[in-house]
Amino acid sequence: MERSRAPGAPLPPYEPLSEGLDIEGLPRSTMVVVEPSPMPPPRDHFAWSLCTMLYGNICCLGFMALVFSVKSRDRKVLRDYSGALSYGTTSKYLNITALLLNIFFVILIIALIASGTVVLANFIHQEQQQLFDGPT
Question: Which InterPro entries does this entry report, sorted A to Z (predicted)?
């Protein structure tokens, strides 16, 4: 017993073809399988940690950031992405802290040098004034 269908409607794939209908007469369909793209592995911030250790190792934060970066890299090799993400995040925060401390200390040193220069210039100016004015 065949079901009635509307003329021109495509047949479902599980029904046999009707009499007088060939495979060329049916519309072509394409099946596309979409697989989710794999998650990229977490970042380990190794280069940043290496630069922090070499150029701004304040309170050994650069060294600790490098240690956590290497741990993150090891976890990536073992395909433990949650552990790699944890170590990588710790490394990133240590690098940020070391960077902020470096910036603070550079600004502090510049301010101290500038204020010391002003004080020294005033002292030299007073000494020259006393020398030219003579003893009173």
Answer: CD225/Dispanin_fam, IFITM_antiviral_protein
